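Need the bound structure for adenosine-5'-triphosphate, inputs here:
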Amino acid sequence: AKEAGKTVEATAGTTAKAASENGDGKEKTGAGKRVCIVYSGNLGDKSYNDSCNEGAKEAAADYGVEIKNLEGTSAEEWEANFLSACEDGYDLVICSSSNFEEYMKEHCASYPNVKFAIIDTTVEGDNIVSISFAQNQGSFLAGAAAAMFTQKTDIEGVNPDKIIGWVGGMDIPVLHDFFTGYEQGAKYIDPDIKVLQSFAGTWNDPLKGKELTLAQFDQGADIVMNVASGTGPGILEGAKEAGKYAIGVDLNQDNDQPGSILTSMVKRVDTACYLAIQSVVEGTFKGNSTSYLTIKEEGVGLTDFSVMKEHLGDKFPEDIVEKVKELEEKIVSGEIVVENYTGFGANK
Amino acid sequence: MDLGKIFSVSLIYATFRSATPIIYAALCAAITQQADILNIGTEGIMLTGAFAAVAVSYLTGSWLLGVVVAMIAGLIMAMIMAVGHIRYKAEICAIGMGINLFALAITKFLLNSALGKSGTFSEPGIIAIPRVSLPFLAKVPFLKEIFDNWCITEWFVIVLIILVWFVFYKTVWGLRLRAVGQFPMAAQTAGINVNSMKYRAIAISGLIGGLAGAHLSLGYSKMFTENMTNARGFMGVAAMYFGGAHPILTAAGCLVFGLTDSIGARLQAYGVPSQLVLLMPYVVTIATLAVSMASKMAREKKKKSALAKA
Amino acid sequence: MNVAVKSIQKILLTMLLALAIGALFILFIGENPLEAYGALLRGAFNGKLKIGTTLASFTPLLLTSCAFAVAAKAGAFNVGVEGEVFLGGITAAYIGINWTFLPAPVLMIVCFLGAMTVAALWALIPAVLKAYYRVSEVCVTILMNSVALYITSYLVSGPMSAGVANAQSLPVTVNLPQFMKPSSVNAGLFIALITVVFMIWVLNKTTFGYKVKTVGTNPSHAEYVGISPKKIFIQSMMLSGALGGMAGCIEVLGVHGYFLNNFAAGLGSNGMLASLIVKNNLIFAPFMSFFLAVLKSGAMGMQQSTGVPKSIVDTITAVFIIVATMELLFQFKDKKNKKEKSK
Amino acid sequence: MSEYVIEMKDIVKSFGNVHAVRNGQFTLKKGEIHSLIGENGAGKSTMMKLLYGMYPIDDGSIRIHGDHIPSISPKIAIEKGIGMVHQEFMLVNELTVLENIILGFEPRHGITIDFDKARKTVEQYINQYGMDIQLGKKINQISVGEAQRVEIIKTLTRGANVIILDEPTAVLTPQETKQLFVILQNLRKDGKSLVFISHKLNEVMEISDRISVMRQGNYIGSVSKEETSPAELAKMMIGREVFLNIEKTQTKPGEKVLEVKDVWVSGEKEISKIRGVSLDVRAGEIVGIAGIDGNGQSELIEAIAGLRQVEKGSVLLDGKELGGLSPKQIRKAGLSHIPEDRNTRGLNRSMSIKENLIAVQVGEAPFCKGVVRDDKETLEYAKQLSEVFDIRPRDPEISTQSLSGGNAQKVVVAREVSIGGKLLVASQPTRGVDIGAIESIRKILQEVKAKGMGVLLVSADLEEILSLSDRIVVMHEGRITGRLKAEDANEDNLGLLMMGGTASAEERGSTT
Ligand SMILES: Nc1ncnc2c1ncn2[C@@H]1O[C@H](COP(=O)(O)OP(=O)(O)OP(=O)(O)O)[C@@H](O)[C@H]1O
Ligand SMILES: Nc1ncnc2c1ncn2[C@@H]1O[C@H](COP(=O)(O)OP(=O)(O)OP(=O)(O)O)[C@@H](O)[C@H]1O
Ligand SMILES: [Mg+2]
Ligand SMILES: [Mg+2]
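Answer from helper R.:
Posting the output first, comments after.
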């Protein structure tokens, strides 16, 4: 039970793009600052972790900060890396995922001189900023796009069945937050849409992802959303191979299997990471603050469909883009309230 | 729940598709098992093969070369194991696990240093193993649907199962191999060089393991991912035990697993908790094995019984 | 030559060889091997945190290697230790969260007992299948590890979920005291050490140990002298399971304080590795576990404080392990001795 | 060309600290049968294994057909025409007889095995020497005698002209031994040279042309058969006189200690299934079971010991029903059991003498306190038994791995007769054991009987059955074909019953 009415930081309104524009032309004010990012996984997932790393690289380019990446695949490594980062005198330690939540709660107070940031969840603490995302909102758009797309039977590979798919990595709460939005978005377009849901049970088995995707296609889906980190490339490949479609996640994955990916639900982990570093460099770091990046803040959203447009040419259903824009506005204005999975949302 | 959608024709191919990598791995393990060597290193051999296949296919544009190099890479890993075990008396399972760790690390390292990528490598430049349909099957309506557009290595695994069976039970080499595995002293007194047989068994196992990897990265998919075997090698070892190192029974074990896995993949969509669906193939495989062993024992007991009418 | 001197010599030469091969890799990527190895040592031993981390990863390995070895003594190849750790962990978590009506010290003991019982029962399945139906325990335990993982994963993302972003349980209400903070080494280390010493004693000095050894080396003889191979096989598998469960309990009560999904990944297989390298010798297994723990935390240290990428660190670790499995230096000595004798 | 096909000179071989052969000399002439004798552990097998290239020699030289062979492997030995029938059969259980015979020398059809050709070649030899072998069966389905013949055929098909037979008769019945000797004579006639190892001096005297004796790894001497006698050979072997024909002690049989009533037991093979066997053993008597190996004796014994399920009928030990009891409970009820296979059943070869001696009393006082084993007590006890039963070496701490056959058997016997049960089941108690040990084991059986234990003796050695038993039952294909008093039995009538011949109605056992 957290107190309601917590401040949603206004600074979050600045997107990474805007921020980097600001950064241009500036001298490297961050030189000498050391930032450590601890990952709960390896880099190279072409998704969440890579996105975070991209934000860091951008910040390094803009501010000249020194970045240290610590990868780890087991809980033991996460904690050890995190503690080592605490001890090694970094100015800022960024915990890239909610896996670090408990360690932060336990240890951050003992390192008052180190600043911490955590992405994708919220942790209280005077030296901690938390940045999380309204992945449900982004997923809502993705679900809506998919629901419309699955009825465009003139496009090759699209069948008349009103069925869309969704494949997740591990069955953990945050993924259900994605799914909640996705399903709501789809039903918003057409209550008759059926949404198939599968979990691979792993973050790094693309072959399993592929198999699940193909199974959903067999069951009538023609577009499947990927929310599976390292398992994801298999989902995208499955779409390509079956001549069907997928929706990417976290990063812009539209180009991973060009022509098979309608759009990607981008979660600006890079922005989050960039903002955290920026705040430390510019001295605006304010402990105990929480940013909840929604569509409004451009923390989540869909890509611009351009790759698909190019691929489908005339057949590209422009109405989807328009509808997505409309929905975006409605969400920002509050006309549409996207539901959260229990335990998620701005007031969590 | 729509049973028709779950038990559709495509389920047959899906079963086979997801079982194939495990069948390859199981054959890799079965060959050494016949020489009484437990090849825990299957996983690592396979992973190395998967990497080599993708790297070579990407760099040379030839899938065939990729497959060949994958097999050689598998061979190298297997030989490290063989020399360590036979020449330097390493515990076979210990060095096998060492090989697994080594493969995991070295493929990651080479992915970074040689291909300049991390995590996943799925460039369009990778040439996958081609898919073919057999023309005579294309005329048969039902079979056509099942056997449409299979990857060459998927066809080949059928050949390989039969080939391995043939080698084990029909050839001179197979006879010697089994003798070495079952009673090395007897083989030795028959003038067979036990160690050299073991080397050869491990070497061939390495070649098949490499091929298993190549199928995984160039046939089943068209990419390399760190640790992309994801315990398929271990599943192969389990399947090998399932079939008692007999290639056909072993393949049957893989198919049982593949079938439940594929049914599971279709069931998930109906809101069954994912973990319960995901554990189903494992439970079903154990149950199948237990039931088959129990009935085999019952049969044996009956055969041995004095009360049975002769 | 004195056996102890000989084994120390073997270990030193093995290390040297592994270091040399590792150095080649490091040179290959253009880093300084000495610096990297310095980082490895510092990573394992420099300061309270690093030593603590090493000891913390040593703790479960002690138990899992012992668990594997105990089963191996009775002739079982128990790949299932990892699953036993998971189930022990989840049971400890369940009891630790829900049975708060018990006073803390009692609750702690009940957590251990519960974890060990459930894990032992889990190990009972492959044991019975093997003993009564000759179903390969290797096959069954490999498969059952996945089952255990999914069951616990289901519980912590469903019925036992803490309702946070991660798949984890609520915190347990009893904890093993930690020391050498901030590392997570805890009193479990001593429990594990005492347990392992106790197991060595059990296997070498008690009647049960004799029976296990008999069954493991010659089941047909065991049956004939009136020791039931089935019973002993099942008992040692269950004992093995209980040790795995204890490791899970220590991880939950001592390290994490809650059940974390997939927390035991690698604990079982590393323990198995430690035990296999020393051919299931219970006395050497703890040393090998320590060596693996040092390698592991040293590897993390190397990643943390040098530019050597993690893949290189892992490669070197693997080379160390491969070299460690080989008895070549032993052989070398024996040959030399023989030659001297025959002269 | 030298007159010898084989010359082994000044051979030295040790395994670790065991000096198996210190000074080995051996020569073999063309066309002779040369026996090699000596106590257990004298180094006979080792000498022959060295000749066959199973291990490298430490020192000395080996010449084959006059050529010095610097290093020899089984492959080279086979190429040089040496064949060896090992003491433990070198046959792969899971393979068929034919596959075993051709293993290593398979006639080929490209890469496949030409089974037709193989069968033809092998059958040719089978017919030539009039042997009875079923090529299609798996090894675990054939009898020991047949396995023996398979081993001989194996050497012949490989073109051996020197054939080494390491204790081939240890497991054979007299009839089978006779058959074997006919084969050996035929082989000699064909110009083959044979090495024959045996502990049975009458056999050695019957078959050999020359005899060499070894003792403790040393060559003692060679004599030709005409110039020697069993007594002299025994003296050469162990340095003293031996008396195998032990005076039977006459005791008055007491209560029934074992009653087997219409018992049916499953069997590994069709002919070894026990179908309705009844017999009893009284305190203070020895009942011998005669029969060709593999006719159900092993199954019957295992059933009595609780190692095999009794499917029907009942077994009573000292009046107590054994059905459903575990081997341990049966032992508690008073069973002592010397199993036929000392290597896998009788001993745990990876444990020490001491541990093996208390194997059936683990967990019992005084060998443990609570759950903790008492090493001191165990050692005391083991020392005592080693002394009483003359187990050599006298150090109970050493592993049974390196014990010779006779001493290994003594460990089993010592353990079983010292626990003081009511019934001793002794299965092939002197198989493969040297005459010194045979003498002492037979004496022990007499003593046990004198003390009032009932003894059920199973032996393939008719001489042993006749010289020890008070009553004899004969088994054939899982049934009892005859029951005789010792006075009425002789090799001939026993042999007939063992082959399934009928006895007169009074002798035949009723099954109820
Ligand atoms: N491989 C081996 N390792 C260690 N010791 C051995 C080995 N083979 C034989 N020995 C030892 O060498 C000695 C001679 O054994 P060998 O088998 O030659 O005796 P043997 O004369 O054949 O006896 P037996 O009559 O019992 O067959 C024995 O003390 C035996 O324990
Ligand atoms: N590889 C080996 N390592 C250690 N000991 C061995 C080895 N091979 C044989 N021995 C031991 O050497 C001894 C002699 O071997 P051998 O094969 O002649 O048996 P044995 O003494 O004649 O016994 P038995 O007559 O019961 O077969 C046996 O006690 C056996 O256990
Ligand atoms: Mg011998
Ligand atoms: Mg012998």
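Comments: The pocket of adenosine-5'-triphosphate (ligand 1) is lined by residues D 15, 18, 20, 38, 40-46, 87, 402, 404-405, 434 (CB under 6 Å). The two ends of chain C are 17 Å apart (CA to CA).
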